[in-house]
Amino acid sequence: MQRAPASPGDPVAAVETPALVLDLDAFERNVGAMAHEVASRGLRLRPHAKSHKTPAIALAQVARGAVGVCCQKVDEATAFVEAGIGDVLVTNEIVAPSKLLRLAALARRARIGVLVDDARAVAPLAQAATHFGVVVDAYVEVDVGAGRCGVTPGEAAAALARRVAEERSLRFAGLHCYHGAAQHLRSPDERRLAIASAAAHAAASRDAVTRAGIACPIVTGAGTGTWEHEMASGVWNELQAGSYVFMDADYARNTPGTGERRFEHSLFVVAAVMSTPTRERAICDAGLKAFSFDSGLPVVHGRADLAYRKASDEHGVLEVPAGARAPELGERVMLIPGHCDPTANLYDWVVACRGARVEHVWPVSARGALG
Prior knowledge:
Lyase, Ornithine Decarboxylase, Chain A, domain 1; TIM Barrel
């Protein structure tokens, strides 16, 4: 873990750059808005913690009514359980014996869930749970359109649910039906149609499970780009949106539908101008190692007249068009990441600020948790 770039009470202007900075006011409005929307429909909120990997953020979400969190890796789950999160769903398939044992061990301290999409994976999971004398929640993952993991919808989901129900150390907890590919479809009609199709697949799978005489208490899924469609569908009763706490430049490229709630940008990388070699070009200290670039370049917050044009390892090139005020040497710029999730994974600390002061410095405890 690297040295913290600030301390509580510091002025924001003193934060060492580059640093991951959170606007607490915007963050708290985002957390409160989602909590209110989901609770008002009588649904469960289980936000995805892969967006932030930060236990303090997960605890804030649970304090506003979330039932627990999702994560993707056993080591991530460990970080959240150790921080006091009592209900963690690993929204991934876990097959390595060592990882299954670590996952089952966590179930001695918290309620733990995991996904399965292959009958061959059931017995090893059950054996790991039996080894520790625990019961693990097993969700059948259904491919509802993402083309990633998951059984085909319908009877295949029921067959796998029956297999899970045969194991005394496993609890069939429901279906995992997440359409990740729909989250960044740009037009509202594209997103609506994608989730309508996913809802039909999820409903067919749920109905097949119940026809087999197995209770299906939870249908879980949804993301920040589509959660309102899942919420309105009558199929999902647990929502997993995660990026809404931060937002990023790529989500901002989605065209909102009529009446859709918009969340605020709350996460930034603060960088400093370290060179002004020409009137048209300024260089900041946040480059390829400060952002994930899989969803495009960062955007300069509050300076629409500046553009982040390219990067090398430790340099970001800002274009200054004619007529725009050129940044001065040492001036700070706030940059909106293209993709918040992998950008957060690059930092050891989140510097949480309110107004012009640092209020908290939170460790990103699940950073780099790939196992």
